[in-house]
From TrEMBL:
Residues 9-69 form the HTH tetR-type domain. One of its GO terms (molecular function) is DNA binding. Pfam families: TetR_N. Residues 32-51 bind DNA. This is TetR/AcrR family transcriptional regulator. It comes from Rhizobium hidalgonense. It comes from the Bacteria. Keywords: DNA-binding, Transcription, Transcription regulation. InterPro entries: Homeodomain-like_sf (IPR009057), HTH_TetR (IPR001647), Tet_transcr_reg_TetR-rel_C_sf (IPR036271). SUPFAM superfamilies: Homeodomain-like, Tetracyclin repressor-like, C-terminal domain. Gene3D superfamilies: Homeodomain-like, Tetracycline Repressor, domain 2.
Length: 197
């Protein structure tokens, strides 16, 4: 029995969303196609109706995960974004968390297509941070370098915190120190603009 275009699109979206979550939880190599399709509620053979290879799905799922991160923080003040991003809830919620924090090391070992998708997603995150900094904490100068620094610091803090045992005081200390430093950097930008420094 043939499925409708709408059902095929729905299945495709379900596979990508499921893969995006599973890859963030366990990495690209930690999830097989059969398990992925079972988790999506579809047959293993149906995978190839949507994708030529797992690598093609990895690129799609990566784009999906990075877009989710962008949407999750859209509209928030940049200081609020840092509070939410550098929180224990985000650290512990790998499958729903930022794809950059979950998959950067894996992406470095992927084909150029996946790296390009990853780079575009990271650039979108940088631009969103830059716009948030400029909108809420203007200084008259480009905030791109500061946005890159803040993103790299925040992603790094999540990665390092996740590498620590759950009950390790260092796991929280990494998040707390990074959150405070990012807040200070953003607020200092405002003080400079207002001539208070």
């Amino acid at each position: 029995m043939r499925i409708t275009k709408e059902k095929k699109q729905e299945n495709y979206e379900r596979i990508v969303a499921t893969a995006s979550e599973l890859f963030r939880e366990r990495g690209f190599d930690g999830v097989g196609v059969a398990e992925l399709m079972e988790r999506a509620g579809l047959t293993h053979g149906g995978f190839y109706n949507h994708f030529r290879s797992k690598e093609e799905l990895i690129a799609e799922a990566t784009e999906n995960g990075l877009s989710e991160t962008l949407k999750r923080y859209a509209g928030h003040d940049v200081l609020a974004v840092m509070e939410l991003y550098l929180a224990r809830e985000h650290r512990d919620g790998r499958g729903q968390g930022c794809a950059a924090a979950a998959l950067s090391c894996d992406a470095a070992r992927q084909p150029e297509e996946t790296k390009a998708v990853f780079a575009a997603g990271i650039d979108n995150l940088v631009r969103a941070l830059e716009q948030g900094i400029a909108r809420n904490h203007p200084s008259g100068t480009s905030g791109r370098a500061q946005a890159i620094t803040i993103l790299a610091q925040a992603v790094g803090a999540i990665v390092l915190s996740r590498a620590c045992p759950d009950d390790s005081p260092l796991a929280d200390e990494l998040l707390d120190a990074c959150r405070a430093d990012c807040r200070d950097a953003i607020e200092n930008r405002t003080r400079v603009q207002e001539g208070r420094v």
